[in-house]
Fold Phytanoyl-CoA dioxygenase.
Amino acid sequence: MARSRVSPPVESPTIPKKLTAEQLASYKNNGYLLIPNALSPTTVSALLSETNHMLSSFSLTDHPMTKFSTGEKDSHVGDDYFLTSGDKVRFFFEEDAFSTTGELTKAKHRAINKIGHYLHELSPQFRKATFTPLHREIAKAMGFKDPRVLQSMIICKQPEIGGRVPPHQDSTFLYTDPPSAVGFWIALEDATIDNGCLSFAKGSHRRAPVTSRFVRKEGGGTGFDDVAGAKFPENLETQELEKDEEEEYELGEVKAGTLVLIHGNLLHKSERNLSGKSRFIYTFHVIEGENDYDGRNWLKPPEKGFTRLYESS
């Protein structure tokens, strides 16, 4: 009798330990970098499980039902629930999760746009996924002297109602003088053209100055003000668009577990998710702790300050 064949065990992909010279050069030239298998399938599964637990267990009692606006409708969130979320884990709804009379049209776990903004401290699972050897090595390779972690979020991009995010620069929302923000964007599910993957204006970080910043207004709420300080990071070789030239965007479809590095000046966007599949991701940002982060920024540092990615030497 023939013996049955036993399939060999499937090996988990090797997690990179640092950027290669080629990857670092690509990031510096293009303003973004896709790094597959930055998180193991086991870690991704655990983060998805934790995300789904949070989405199903948070309470609607006394929730202000704050919606997160992507800016498509010239409105930006600025209530107290949002402005005091820098050291908490809070839940923000999709704009299109409500009827015209203000009632939820989706189950709560399918109505949330994002969860933020202190997951890297208050969630053990997401803290572990933030302070990894790879992330520390990336920050060192980029030349950070005192990298600080802030604004950690799960962005859900819900099926059928996931909102479009127009072209923007992360340093607009996390302004330092000079600009220093870098986004660490991690796919927890496959991100495709169908469910709203990112698109990047390749090299725009060297052409697009940060001209506005998202701030707290003196009379309350939030808005955009002109940048009075530096508009590009230090030691960045800048370029100019040719007259009448427009930025072109490249799709960034990625598999779950991929890390996407995004320069703070880089123009990037994502389209609506009209598909039946969610596009869950985890993202946090790093800024240079030695640069000026003033009190006008919408996100206030926790009492102990923004968390160090690693201890500076």
Notes: The longest strand covers residues 147-155.
